[in-house]
Structure formats: C-alpha cells, structure tokens
C-alpha cells in the first residue's frame, strides 16, 4: 500500500510539473550556449577587431540623454539606445536627436515591467506599443529588443522572433550597475578593467537624480581610444560577426 501511494504521488507530481513546464516556458530554459549557437540571444560578439558596443537603457531622458550624446560625439562614438515606449511618447525629439547623430534605437518595452510575470498577450502588447512609439517619433522601426532586467524565457524569445526583433542582452562582465549610482570611479573601473573585443556594455541614460554615467564616459572613452578601441552600434557589431563567419568559411 505504501509503495502504491508513493507511485501515485510521483505520478501526480510528474504530471503537474509537465503541465507547469508547458504553461511556464521559463522552466524550460537551457544554458546560454544553446541560445547563442542558435542566434536566439546575443550577449557579445566574437571578433578580432577592437570594437565594442555601448548600450543605454531606460531612456530617453530630457536631462541625462543629451549629456551622454554630447560625450559620445566628442569621441566619435556610436551607441545603441534601448528606449522605453512611454518615455519615447513623452520625449520624441530626443529619440530623433539620437538617430540624427548616427546612433541606433532598440525596443526596451513600453512600461518596463518584469516580463517573467507577464503572459504572451501582455508581452506582445509591450513590444508592439513601443514599436509604434518609435515609428511615430522617427519613422523607423527598431530591429533590436532588450527585455527589462535581461529576463527571458521561451515566450519572450518566440515573440521577439515573430516580430523580427533580435534579442540583445550584454556581456556578463560589463554590467556597470550605473542604475544604482555606485560612484563614477566604480563605473569606470568596471568597464576598463574588463574590456574585451566584441563587448556589449550595459549602461543607462535614465538614472534618477544621477549624472554618473555621463561623467564616467568622459573617462572611459578617451582611455579606450588610447587602447585602440572604436565604438559601434550593436547592429554594426553583429555585422562584424557575419563578416568573420564568412571569412572562416571562405578560408576553410
């Protein structure tokens, strides 16, 4: 009788877990290499060139974004701005300014919720409304998407693909945590002490009551230039991977 009860409990548990896994794709997550090899998610780009991509989340902001744009322009740096849709609706002129200076715009959701807690319809709404906000402000469509907090599951990956959006995260060793306003030097040290070819660096152009990001860039950019680095958009960085893959195939 005890064995029968145990078998029933195990059977019910397995059935319930299977149902949970079907309903919650986050439970089916595989390791990073699986998604990288398939091109589902990009954390960084393997390249022999000394190029890196700075990315800025959570903007646009009427005070901090122009300061960051000014520093980037001073050092001929191009970057990618992952914008929040409701802020695009409030500050469309700043998004247009980003594009006019040769930077790239990516989708970072409309309200910046935690996607892990959202169903398919809500995720799709967040993406679609932001695409519409970007299009209305600039006449262009974003090709890149970064989920708030970097959270992802199979729903998020599938919806990104269905909407022709490449899911972009960041190099694990290049999370500056500037959103915590940890101090200019800590932001500087994080980038300079860990930089590698093909890095995607995570920063923010909207941090409440803080200008540490723009101040840190004034130190980071000239130092990296001295080391021979150039600064490109994420899409430009991705094209270098395609070029390198093509070169490897041709020479084999």
TrEMBL record:
It holds the Pfam family Polysacc_deac_1. Coiled coil: none annotated. InterPro entries: Glyco_hydro/deAcase_b/a-brl (IPR011330), NODB_dom (IPR002509), Polysacc_deacetylase_ArnD (IPR050248). Residues 50-232 form the NodB homology domain. It comes from the Bacteria. The keyword Metal-binding applies. Residues 1-23 form the signal peptide. This is Polysaccharide deacetylase family protein.
